[in-house]
Amino acid sequence: MYYPYLRARQFELIALRELADERITQNYILPIIEPVKETQNNLNIAYRVFQEHQQLAYLIVNPSVGELAGDNTHYLDYIAKLDEAIIQPAFHYRNNANYIRQSIANYTLNNCMLICQNDVNADDINFRDLIKSAEISAINLKDPGRNRALDRFLRGLNKTLIRLDDLFVKQARNSDFLDIDEHRFSEEHLYYEDEGFKGFSDYTVLPSEYSDGGSTPRAVVIHFTYLNSQNQIWIRHFTSDSNDSIANVQGKFAEAAGKAVAYCRANHLTNSAIQELENYFDEEHYPGLGTVKKISIKNHLLFVSEYLRNKL
Known about the structure:
Layout: E1 2-7, H1 10-22, E2 32-34, H2 41-53, E3 57-60, H3 74-79, E4 87-93, H4 97-107, E5 112-116, H5 125-131, E6 136-142, H6 148-155, E7 160-165, E8 183-186, H7 188-191, E9 199-202, E10 221-227, E11 233-239, H8 249-266, H9 272-282, H10 289-311
Parallel strand pairs: 1-2, 1-9, 2-3, 3-4, 4-5, 5-6, 6-7, 7-9
Antiparallel strand pairs: 8-11, 10-11
């Protein structure tokens, strides 16, 4: 199972909604969604689509970033109104065992996920007692090889153990991607089971760092992953060329999209995300940078789900 970690922003949620509508990701992809806004409009729309198409998801109730970062009850109250068979609770663990334990008791939570950094002290009795509780069914551990004591302890539990990797290498400027050729992105989907994990997780083709909003870029980049002949996930960064100023974003999109479309057609790569990009390019229509990001996320999730479907 693949557990993509995404923030609950508009276009990330649209990507998940469209994939649920296509009935592509059910049973292969279970997203982890971190809310970053106090308002819940986009989440409500996504939830209705998930419920209609039986797309399961985790919602982090104590986000680490955004308008309501920290341990609070805002999203606990929100998730209490939802179908627990569709939306399941996830907690960031950061020496907050009492908050998590009390939240589980107060809201009668089950099937919870714990998201842990690799600096957790495996000998901490509060952590051990919490993670052994029956209400915690899944553990998402970032970069598990960095803390072998913790990794060994977690493997001794009868839990769904997932590895979380930070794979996307952000550049200082979008134009820097011009100098980067295609490169290997991930092999975790090939080996996670051999290493004793029941799932793998990453931030898709986005940086793990959270940024609220953004300025008009000098360069437009379309990040496309694909499976090579060995079923490794590789990535190419299709970057505009006229990057001297922030003017003419539409033209920059046409330059980047032209490169991406030519590559996909030459290599017979296609799915609904690629087809959407091709339509915008062929019709000379600029859909906005949010849609460009959505297309990149969808493309990545489609290739991963295709691999998992064929594997099973």
